[in-house]
């Protein structure tokens, strides 16, 4: 019997709608509730998505109150301010901190065993703040982190080595942002370490691959204004993993005790949220990159 089946999505924009659309076709939720400060947008999304009910058993509706959303099994935060042209990152964080604080306060008291999934950016900082503001145990608060970046990496490497991306296991770790890094030493295809393949050095320019993965979002934004299908699919998969207690390992934004910071590391995910965080085999250079990413995030997270 599925026990984690009511999902609240905070934010009825393109990302929230893409997430809801993906979840409806998975048929794993009994109900999806939308919450947004713009009721007309919520009603429009509900009306539009309800047309997909003919191929889904999932009921979708507007939450009666924010408190009702706080009683759902899983709460997904997609709402947040977008960065303005020329705006410093610190200003964006401050604006989204206020948004997050207001939302979490409006949902109180949040269900004690709820899992809070952060998708809004900057996701590592906001996951750190959500953990503090919600009062939930650290394991019940996680962010989408570098899951999408890692998916992009596996697809990219699959194309380079002519293999299905599902057979590629590779992680982008650290910040979902400027200081993220690729764990090349831990990357494998069919159980064989990628860096030991005979043609690895000929096929792979690590710097170029890193730039391609980190820069893909900006390419999409430049061409169409926003990204939402990829992150919507990844968020839906994370909800799927929690609802069915799949215990799949994904790179997500979690509190890493040994680093004293919230960033992306591979984590086993199930009903309780994060069940275990795994260490990854890294080269000395990669360890330095991960610590540099942690230091950059900690400098901001310590302000809150």
From the 3D coordinates, which CATH architecture of the largest domain would you assign? Alpha-Beta Complex
- SS-derived structural category: alpha/beta
CATH topology of the largest domain: L-2-Hydroxyisocaproate Dehydrogenase, Chain A, domain 2
How many helices in DSSP terms? 10
Task: Kindly report the spatial arrangement of strands forming the biggest sheet.
Answer: 3-2-1-4-5-6
The overall pLDDT average reads 93
Give an overview in words.
This protein is of the alpha/beta class. It has two domains: 6-143, Rossmann fold; 147-301, L-2-Hydroxyisocaproate Dehydrogenase, Chain A, domain 2 (Alpha-Beta Complex), CATH 3.90.110.10. Helix content is 43%, strand content 19%. The protein has ten helices and 14 strands. The strands form four sheets. A six-stranded parallel β-sheet has the order 3-2-1-4-5-6.
List the SSEs and their pairings:
Blueprint: E1 6-10, H1 14-26, E2 31-35, H2 39-50, E3 59-62, H3 66-69, E4 74-77, H4 89-107, E5 115-118, H5 123-134, E6 141-143, H6 147-161, E7 168-169, E8 172-173, E9 181-182, E10 188-189, E11 192-193, H7 200-203, H8 206-224, H9 229-243, E12 248-256, E13 261-270, E14 273-277, H10 284-301
Parallel strand pairs: 1-2, 1-4, 2-3, 4-5, 5-6
Antiparallel strand pairs: 7-10, 8-9, 10-11, 12-13, 13-14
């Amino acid at each position: 019997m599925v026990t984690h089946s009511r999902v609240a999505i905070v934010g009825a924009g393109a990302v929230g709608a893409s997430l809801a659309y993906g979840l409806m076709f998975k048929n794993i939720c009994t109900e999806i509730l939308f919450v947004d400060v713009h009721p007309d947008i919520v009603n429009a999304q509900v009306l539009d998505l309800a047309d997909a009910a003919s191929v889904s058993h999932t009921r979708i509706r507007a939450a009666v109150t924010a408190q009702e959303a706080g009683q759902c099994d899983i709460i997904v935060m997609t709402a947040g301010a977008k960065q303005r042209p020329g705006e410093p990152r610190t200003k964006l964080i401050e604006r989204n901190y206020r948004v997050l604080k207001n939302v979490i306060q409006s949902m109180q008291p949040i269900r004690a065993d709820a899992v809070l999934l952060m998708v809004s950016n900057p996701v590592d900082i906001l996951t750190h703040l959500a953990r503090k503001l919600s009062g939930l145990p650290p394991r019940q608060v996680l962010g989408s982190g570098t899951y999408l970046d890692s998916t992009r990496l596996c697809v990219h490497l699959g194309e380079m080595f002519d293999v299905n991306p599902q057979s590629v296991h590779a992680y982008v770790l650290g910040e979902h942002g400027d200081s993220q890094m690729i764990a090349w030493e831990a990357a494998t295809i069919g159980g064989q370490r990628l860096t030991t393949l005979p043609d690895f050095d000929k096929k792979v320019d690590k710097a170029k691959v890193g730039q391609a993965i980190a820069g893909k979002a900006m390419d999409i934004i430049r061409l169409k204004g926003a990204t939402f299908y990829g992150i919507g699919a990844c968020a839906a998969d994370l909800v799927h993993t929690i609802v069915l207690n799949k215990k799949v390992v994904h790179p997500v934004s979690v509190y890493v005790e040994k680093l004293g910071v919230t960033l992306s590391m591979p984590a086993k995910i199930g009903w309780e949220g994060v069940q275990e965080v795994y260490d990854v085999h890294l080269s000395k250079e990669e360890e330095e990159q991960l610590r540099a990413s942690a230091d950059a995030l900690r400098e901001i997270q310590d302000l809150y």
